[in-house]
Amino acid sequence: xxxxxxxxxxxxxxxxxxxxxxxxxxxxxxxxxxxxxxxxxxxxxxxxxxxxxxxxxxxxxxxxxxxxxxxxxxxxxxxxxxxxxxxxxxxxxxxxxxxxxxxxxxxxxxxxxxxxxxxxxxxxxxxxxxxxxxxxxxxxxxxxxxxxxxxxxxxxxxxxxxxxxxxxxxxxxxxxxxxxxxxxxxxxxxxxxxxxxxxxxxxxxxxxxxxxxxxxxxxxxxxxxxxxxxxxxxxxxxxxxxxxxxxxxxxxxxxxxxxxxxxxxxxxxxxxxxxxxxxxxxxxxxxxxxxxxxxxxxxxxxxxxxxxxxxxxxxxxxxxxxxxxxxxxxxxxxxxxxxxxxxxxxxxxxxxxxxxxxxxxxxxxxxxxxxxxxxxxxxxxxxxxxxxxxxxxxxxxxxxxxxxxxxxxxxxxxxxxxxxxxxxxxxxxxxxxxxxxxxxxxxxxxxxxxxxxx
Amino acid sequence: xxxxxxxxxxxxxxxxxxxxxxxxxxxxxxxxxxxxxxxxxxxxxxxxxxxxxxxxxxxxxxxxxxxxxxxxxxxxxxxxxxxxxxxxxxxxxxxxxxxxxxxxxxxxxxxxxxxxxxxxxxxxxxxxxxxxxxxxxxxxxxxxxxxxxxxxxxxxxxxxxxxxxxxxxxxxxxxxxxxxxxxxxxxxxxxxxxxx
Lengths: 454, 196
Prior knowledge:
The structure holds 2 protein chains of 2 kinds.
Chain A: H1 3-8, H2 11-17, H3 20-24, H4 30-42, H5 44-64, H6 72-90, E1 128-129, E2 143-148, E3 156-159, E4 163-166, E5 171-174, E6 180-183, E7 188-193, E8 196-201, E9 203-208, E10 216-219, E11 224-228, E12 232-237, E13 245-252, E14 254-258, E15 265-268, E16 271-276, E17 285-286, H7 289-293, H8 298-301, E18 304-310, E19 321-328, E20 334-337, E21 344-352, E22 359-362, E23 367-371, E24 377-379, E25 386-389, E26 394-400, E27 409-419, E28 434-437, E29 441-445
Parallel strand pairs in A: 8-10
Antiparallel strand pairs in A: 1-4, 2-3, 2-5, 4-7, 5-6, 6-9, 7-8, 9-12, 10-11, 11-14, 12-13, 13-16, 14-15, 16-17, 18-19, 19-26, 20-25, 21-22, 21-27, 23-24, 23-26, 27-28, 27-29
Helix pairs in contact in A: 4-5
Chain B: H1 4-15, H2 19-41, H3 44-61, H4 71-97, H5 113-116, H6 123-141, H7 145-154, H8 161-168, H9 172-195
Helix pairs in contact in B: 1-2, 2-3, 2-4, 3-4, 4-8, 6-9, 7-9, 8-9
């Protein structure tokens, strides 16, 4: 339809004319189709356009379809064969990196990894080395997760097939799905994919948030697989005794442990089980969860929340304020690491539209505030190394986003608050710190903002 | 295709490694996805390969699928990307052989005549049918890539234009205008066949 033709149409015809081809191919919802049809039935010109479109699009559909049905049975049979092969390949043990001790595999995930959800940046710092940088499979550069050792300056990605050895204590792993992991020192990992992990040696703990199912970890001493259900906190310990044994301990949720032989055993919160090459004992034992998980500190991290807010893009010359808030959501007093002090890290992840991988930038505060539960705020100094929060209180870090978000267009912002090596990170004794992530918010930066308002 | 809630449940089961759920989802989509893939490359074997790869990728991605879009959208997004790669492959191969990209299945124009022609039809009718088919494919190939993709997705059973917009990551209005422009161009090129 030319501009001239469009100008000659009545408003009612002009409004529905572009919908007619979609009506002709059945691409409208029932309500939309009924509305357009009412007009078409009562308008001779639009009815003719509809008939023309229907005729030609039906011809196109018929004549461009395959004359012979695809052989879906053959496709499905081949699919099953490939799924079986690729599944086995996913769980192929990683090569031992050093000859010491027994090798523990915490491996991986059932299921499969997801090209679709992969993509964050992993923080890999000086405490982590990559003895065997493995070639990336399929040419894919999508990271599986982030790693963040203490003192790491920037997030760095880990890719499918990578091996890492944590020399420092408290290495933090974050997956795009929200799943998190912690490593004790000397733990060695093989990243199978976004849903699967092998720990060659050492101890690794995982938090699987609600809504994420099927995360699996395998211990190589026992060749056992621990598969979590949604909302689980568990660890695999590579301190197996003679004969090759691993331990699985569960702080929250349910984990199914399956040995190389024998049936899977359900391990509930507060329970643990030894796993050997001979399988899993039928009855898990009660464990001291606090003692087992104190190094992880994931329970105390739940006492505080991290949120981020940003206003609309402002007029030229005005500030564009964003606020990161760390709030005590518990009913007891907690102590958090101070803003921009050694061991605390505030970063903003910026994702371009349609991308699942963001880039990170450190947040420099413009104003620091402490806000009472009732809403009154008072400025605080940056020099504090620890800050005490009463129930409902929060610390706020205000930034000018103009200096942070430099690209135009629609983007998503996620704030990250990370604390490492703080002796009293959240009111509970904590050796390893924690990392929190805010909700994602969408922003829009105009292409040529300085021209706005002129 | 199934009800949205059923498909989400199937995806959860697939994420846990449930092969029955996978097979069920495959059977619900194989025809629609297969036809779409064929219409993008006009090559039965290549379409079958892409269909296989689409569902293999879905199986791999299932544990990380967060349910932010409909399952149908997710599947067709994978298929669309594979279809674009397949088209490039077809173009390259047929450029080497000197055939047109829209030539019949497996590049052998007319080779499927005996499969499609009614046994009661004479050779003249069969040839006429093949010519019509070639005209339609040539008309589609003459469309800009972005319009052709909208047409092929919009003609897929069960997909609404809103889903097409989501699959292509485009505003709904853009999908409508591309579809309208494509339909207009196709009508001009093929009107005589329709009237016949």
